[in-house]
């Protein structure tokens, strides 16, 4: 049996992180993802007891969360569960729905602010073409970031997550890193 | 240019890609006797109005929905947007009307 070592989306053994000013950027290698889509005339499921949100919404509790990705479609997030068969768990709790494993398709990056929401709003203004003040805590949306398609999730006033294509993890990291460093250079 | 997405609110037009005239939703019956005659205008002939135009836009970097957007081709003013699925359902309900309501 070959001795294989798991690597993160950015190619190292441990998740990468960066701290600059009041902002911390972290690769979230432990996030499990599965998408749920309703079949025609199927009732809305409630995986892990979550009340699946409406358009533009994100909701979470007890280590799992969900956000709306399209009419009748949601992405379910399992925190610290990337090494488990999360899609099977989701499928069990969503009978009759189409469930697809997404963990290996996406790379997740978490950005935290130690000084409230203001640095997060300033950063989002630089990164994505959506109104940061209207993407309040509990919102998630898909948009473009430097020509890449990403999900932007506002987990809390001082926390935002960016989920993008795993194959473009390096480019997303670069975009986020440059924006954070420039923001803090401008503030200094 | 901002497009008023019926579910997500105002979104940048850069997130969308454009397909063309919304009359593409009115696909003729391919099994009908006169299918060849009806498919010729469906595939090749388009109005090119200076003014109001109903057109299909795809929210590619978004929720991946198809929209029917009403746009003024002279001023680029966007007068409204609705989900193409809703338009199709409405057309089906009043198929006798025929036109894009």
Please give the order of strands in the largest beta sheet of chain A: 1-2-8-11-10-9
* CATH class assignment of chain B: Alpha Beta
The run of helices and strands of chain A is EEEEEEHEEHEEEH
Unreliable stretches of chain A (pLDDT < 50, length at least 5) are none
Query: Largest sheet of chain A at a glance?
Result: 6 strands, antiparallel
Please, how many domains of chain B?
1
Relevant CATH superfamily of chain A: Probable tRNA modification gtpase trme, domain 1
**CATH fold name of chain B, please?**
Folate-binding fold
Structural class of chain B: alpha+beta
User: What coarse outline of chain B follows from CA principal-axis ratios?
Assistant: globular
What does this structure look like?
Chain A: This is Sarcosine oxidase subunit gamma. The complex is a heterodimer of chains A (188) and B (101). Chain A has helices at 86-93, 118-127, 169-187; strands at residues 17-20, 23-28, 32-37, 58-61, 64-70, 73-78, 98-101, 106-113, 139-145, 148-156, 159-165. By secondary structure, chain A is α+β, with helices and mostly antiparallel strands. A 6-stranded antiparallel β-sheet of chain A has the order 1-2-8-11-10-9, with helices on one face. Chain A has a 5-stranded antiparallel β-sheet with strand order 4-5-6-3-7, with helices on one face. In chain A, α2 (118-127) crosses α3 (169-187). The longest helix of chain A has 19 residues, at 169-187. The mean pLDDT of chain A is 93. Chain B is of the alpha+beta class. Chain B has one domain: 2-Layer Sandwich (Folate-binding fold). In chain B, the strands form 2 sheets. In chain B, strands 3-4-5-6 form a 4-stranded antiparallel β-sheet. A two-stranded antiparallel ribbon of chain B has the order 1-2. In chain B, a hairpin with a 7-residue loop joins β4 (52-58) and β5. Chain B is globular. The A-B interface holds A 55-56, 68-71, 129-131, 134, 141-144, 149 and B 7-12, 14-15, 60-65, 83, 85.
